[in-house]
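Worked example 2:
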Amino acid sequence: MIRWLLLLLGGVLLGGIVHLATIFFLPRTATQDAYSRLTPIAPVNRVVALPAPAAEKAVMPFMDPAFAEAVCRYDLASGPLKLTVPVSNAYTSVSFYTHNDIAYYAINDRAAGRRAIELDLMTAEQRSELPENEDVTAADLLIVESPTLTGLVTIRALAPEPALMPIAQNIVAGATCAKFNLPSKSD
């Protein structure tokens, strides 16, 4: 009886190890991740609207046809980026992902509380180069620190009715993702 329990325990333990190894290493070996799929159609540091999903094919899996979507494939090696996204009356969201598809920040129009979502995207090293200004508060300047130099920013605008899709498409088309120069600490 003890032999069977040890055998069962060993099988469960081995199965758990195989399961965890698969969960952790399979995403790193996948060749068709989001970054790879978007590389041919999205230039670096520029917002590109994604085509509407069709039943037979979509740029990305599980795209919602009620949303107009755009993406900015970023590279912070040459400096930080300023992201500006106009907000819609229905719903607008911006999500940030590393090169390995790990989400690290998201904001929507309700949280931004403005007519546009404006933020600066930079690495921790680039942020440390910013001058300290006591007059500027966190509410005045939204800074997102990227854990990696490359990644994706996805922009989504809801069209609550199919007739409102052109408005949602104009919202994501009005988004910008452009490089800017850091002010020096001596300024």
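Helices lie at 2-29, 34-38, 109-112, 124-128, 165-173. The mean pLDDT is 85.
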